[in-house]
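Hi U.,

Before I forget, here's the chain from the pilot set. I'm dumping it here mostly so it's searchable later in email.
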Amino acid sequence: MKRNTFILAGLFALLLIIAFLVLQKPGEQSANSASTGLMFKIDSLSVDKVEIKTPSSSLVLEKRGVDWFVAQPVNYKADQANVGQIIHQVKNLEIKNIVSSKPEKHSVFLVDKAGTQVTVYEKGVEKASFILGKMAGSYSESYARKLNSDDVFIVEGASSYMFNRPVKDWRDKTILATPKESIKEVQYQYGDTTFNIAFRDSAWYVGKDKALQSVVDGILSSLSSLQADDFNDSTIAPQVTAMIAYAGAQLRFSYNKNMNKYYVQVSHAPQWFVLEQWKANQILKRKKDILETSKK
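Structure:
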């Protein structure tokens, strides 16, 4: 009886080991929770260039003065927050464990040509270069490999989504930004039809008539921080159908029927932006929409 118990216990342990090995993904192993330190030593204030390459795209970010710019594939001011996020992630990239040192396993973890290659420069000198692969055991962990090394690590703190954004999300989408409280007048023009809303005597008016405060608040909120959804880089200027002037600038609108979206340009820059229709409709109000007497 006692011998049978030992045999059964041994068989059970063997089955557990077999089940564990079967369930493991080929070429992968569990990570030790103990950290082995940062992958790179980065001085974020000295970083002045970042290159990101994927199998289908190549992006170069450059710091010019105090601002970041997209240098390739277009030349445009960058979204400063998005650039700051990836520099922060590279600086704080924490090695959790090594999972493989075999070159033939690189494709398993997508740390080969299928991965995302990131190179960071400080004052023109390369300081970090690695390939970010697929997600590991959790949303905060990924596989990564230093460019000139066969060692594959599980790292914490990097999100491949952050590095693989489309080009439009690396560009600064700000059309016009101004404090809401500084807007005291907004002038509208639709062809030959013009009118304005203005703040006077502690209230908003459309000409001589009182404006509906809730509608004006919505307009001002949208105008104070107007963000594009995309960019229109065509050299052909669209036909302007509406104009709005405020805060020393003018917005020009053109409706694209095929896209069901608006093109928008601000007077102090040549760039045309793309704006979703619902977002444009928050701004492009007619006089009857703003009048207090139109409230039912």
